[in-house]
Design a protein that fits this description.
This protein has 296 residues and is of the alpha/beta class. The protein has 14 helices and 8 strands. It has one domain: TIM Barrel. An 8-stranded parallel barrel has the order 1-2-3-4-5-6-7-8, surrounded by 6 helices. Helix 5 links the parallel strand 4 and strand 5. Helix 4 packs parallel to helix 5, helix 5 runs parallel beside helix 7 and helix 12 packs antiparallel against helix 14. The longest helix is centred in the last third of the chain and has 18 residues. It is globular and about 50 Å long.
Length: 296
């Protein structure tokens, strides 16, 4: 069942760039292999961590196809299809080749601050046009609007192909309300690595993770213990990751994770403006943490 396939931990994969600013497909292939070899349950393409707002529509379509082909069925794939214009999201649904994907991840429209009714109508339209199951993505810190638990639950009840939510509001009480009142099999996934174990302790289904990009084996060990209900052991296993996860977000995402991946030699430390690479101090911090806690 698709809901079971997308529990656990999915990696919100980065988009590596070449020195001249193009998409670095050999590095992207290395990232896919690194994540899968590290035990991730699935991969999420074209999300926040992928710098999707800086990617042209054509680039997004090619990246989605490349990731699909390189995964080659080894793990499930979720593709980000979102935007602040509902009609543009429908254009993406038509333009992208989604045949190799298992679901789409669709973010709350950003910048224009829709009402709760506007959010409902947006996702109603997306759900009616999506050929794949839909995972909602609530991230008010970036979108400028918080989708309330009531709106999430209304969407979940009304549209069968809306199968879950990536909740990155940082509001554990809001997540708990969704958990308490969700339809059967509706996925509740953390959008914050640091809240993963707490959400799972409360009955949540896992995380769409930044940390799994860089430290897949360590992060998956924590998630797998939590999935088995061994939360004390999961908390203990997370201790070696605590400083590194905080460092991933110290200068913003994906600045931090690209800095860590560059320190590990997996990709170049390159982002598209207006984002800039992490500072030398952050690079040094990651080098020390990776060595101290054997995070590679």
């Amino acid at each position: 069942m698709i809901r079971h396939k997308l529990s656990g931990a999915g990696a919100a994969i980065v988009t590596p760039f070449t020195p001249d600013g193009r998409v670095d497909y050999p590095a992207l292939a290395r990232m896919i292999d690194h994540i899968i070899d590290g035990g991730a349950d699935y991969i999420v393409a074209l999300g926040t961590t992928a710098e999707t707002p800086t990617l042209y529509l054509h680039e997004r379509a090619v990246i989605a196809m490349f990731i699909t082909n390189h995964i080659a069925g080894r793990v499930p794939l979720v593709i980000g299809v979102g935007g602040n214009s509902t009609s543009e999201v429908l254009d993406q649904l038509r333009e992208f080749d989604l045949r190799g994907a298992d679901a789409i991840l669709s973010v709350t429209p950003y910048y224009n601050k829709p009402s709760q009714e506007g959010l409902y109508q947006h996702f109603k339209t997306v759900s009616e046009h999506s050929p794949l199951p839909v995972i909602l993505y609530n991230i008010p810190g970036r979108s400028g609007v918080n989708m309330t638990a009531e709106t999430t639950l209304r969407i979940a009840r009304d549209f069968d192909n809306v199968i879950g939510i990536k909740e990155a509001s940082g509001k554990i009480e809001q997540m708990q309300e969704i958990l308490d009142r969700r339809p059967e099999d509706f996925l509740v996934l953390s959008g914050d690595d640091a809240l993963t174990l707490e959400l799972m302790r409360r009955g949540g289904d896992g995380v769409i993770s930044v940390a799994v990009n860089a430290f897949p084996r360590k992060m998956m060990a924590c998630v797998n213990l939590a999935r088995e209900g061994r939360f004390d052991e999961a908390d203990k296993a997370y201790e070696c990751l605590d400083e590194a996860v905080k460092a991933l977000f110290a200068e913003g995402n994906p600045t931090g994770v690209k800095c860590a991946l560059a320190a590990m030699g997996l990709i170049g430390n390159r982002l598209r403006l207006p984002l800039v690479p992490g500072t030398p101090e952050l690079s040094e911090r990651f080098e020390k943490l990776i060595a101290r806690y054997d995070l590679c």
